[in-house]
């Protein structure tokens, strides 16, 4: 099993999918308890949701499950949300705070480092390479990081999560035009609730790669799973009707980002000439 799957496109948008993979090596699978083996915290069907929406987009997808190692966490283990409940680089609990490993089977520091080298590092090497390729071609690169989560997770947030959760680390990770274009559409999407920089402000991927002054723009979209699953528990089936409705909005968002790229690239070039 290769850690990462890359589909290279010739457009300015790169789709990152760090959490839709379900592969767990056998030796790690045996360490997980029955709850862990449920793999409940997968970003279920997110790859299917975005497939084919923007023909020129690049897609970088982690094939491994986040219980192996979380590709959207700081490799140094630093918390993204200090003082708030969250999961770690190598999660030992699920999103409800319940242990996912058999007794005394959680990974130690040496095993975490081995997993980082084997899984986390190749994903980010591939993502960085694609972003650099796209920026060289277009003058900018727009990373759109694709996520989903259960609508209600009391351990992580109060109440019910909005359908669309847009994160830009309070505007730091992308040009304001990108943030405005995405949020304008989700705010106006009939029948859906949305929030900008709410509980999810963008994970490590968004914060690490989002360097607008250098021509790298990043934005995270966290979808509540009620928007595309028949039920937010096993068997985590894809709801074709609801997903098609959602996909129309996602396609509009991605198309808007692609359309913004030339003007942003021109601004980037002007900035470079001025300096």
Protein structure class: alpha/beta
Helix fraction, binned, reads 25-40%
Question: Which regions are unreliable across 5 or more consecutive residues at pLDDT < 50?
Answer: none
Biggest sheet features: 7 strands, mixed
User: How far apart lie the N and C ends?
Assistant: 46 Å
DSSP E strands, number: 7
What Rg do the Cα atoms give? 18 Å
Order of helices and strands: EEHHHEHEEHEHEH
How much beta, percentage-wise? 5-15%
Kindly report the spatial arrangement of strands forming the biggest sheet.
1-3-2-4-7-5-6
Total of helices: 7
Please give a quick description of this structure:
The chain is 35% helix and 14% strand. The chain has 275 residues and is of the alpha/beta class.
Furnish the topology, listing elements before pairings.
Elements: E1 4-7, E2 13-17, H1 26-29, H2 34-37, H3 46-50, E3 58-62, H4 109-138, E4 141-149, E5 164-167, H5 176-188, E6 194-196, H6 204-209, E7 216-224, H7 240-274
Parallel strand pairs: 2-3, 2-4, 4-7, 5-6
Antiparallel strand pairs: 1-3, 5-7
Description:
- With 275 residues, this protein is of the alpha/beta class.
- The chain is 35% helix and 14% strand.
- The chain contains seven helices and seven strands; from the N terminus they run ββαααβαββαβαβα.
- The chain has helices spanning 26-29, 34-37, 46-50, 109-138, 176-188, 204-209, 240-274; strands spanning 4-7, 13-17, 58-62, 141-149, 164-167, 194-196, 216-224.
- The protein has a seven-stranded mixed beta sheet, with helices on both faces.
- α5 packs antiparallel against α7 (240-274).
- The termini are far apart.
């Amino acid at each position: 099993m290769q850690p990462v799957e890359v589909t290279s496109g010739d457009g300015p948008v790169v789709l990152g999918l760090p959490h839709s993979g379900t592969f767990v090596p056998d030796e790690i699978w045996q360490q997980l308890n029955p709850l862990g083996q449920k793999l409940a915290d997968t970003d279920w069907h997110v790859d299917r949701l975005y497939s084919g929406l923007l023909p020129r987009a690049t897609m970088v997808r982690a094939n491994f499950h986040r219980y192996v190692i979380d590709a959207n966490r700081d490799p140094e283990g630093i918390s993204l949300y200090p003082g708030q409940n969250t999961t770690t680089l190598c999660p030992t609990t699920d999103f409800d705070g319940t242990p996912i490993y058999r007794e005394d089977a959680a990974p130690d520091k040496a095993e975490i480092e081995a997993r980082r080298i084997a899984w986390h590092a190749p994903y980010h090497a591939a993502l960085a390479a694609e972003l650099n390729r796209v920026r060289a071609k277009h003058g900018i690169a727009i990373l759109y990081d694709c996520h989903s989560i259960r609508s209600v997770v009391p351990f992580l947030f109060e109440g019910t999560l909005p359908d669309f959760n847009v994160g830009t680390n309070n505007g730091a990770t992308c040009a304001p035009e990108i943030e405005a274009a995405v949020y304008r559409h989700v705010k106006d999407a009939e029948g859906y609730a949305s929030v900008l920089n709410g509980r999810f402000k963008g994970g490590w991927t968004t914060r690490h790669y989002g360097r607008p002054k250098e021509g790298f723009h990043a934005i995270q979209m966290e979808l509540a799973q009620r928007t595309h699953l028949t039920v937010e528990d096993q068997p985590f089936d894809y709801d074709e009707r609801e997903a098609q409705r959602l996909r129309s909005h996602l396609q509009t968002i991605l198309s808007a980002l692609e359309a913004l790229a030339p003007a942003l690239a021109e601004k980037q070039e002007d900035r470079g000439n001025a300096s």
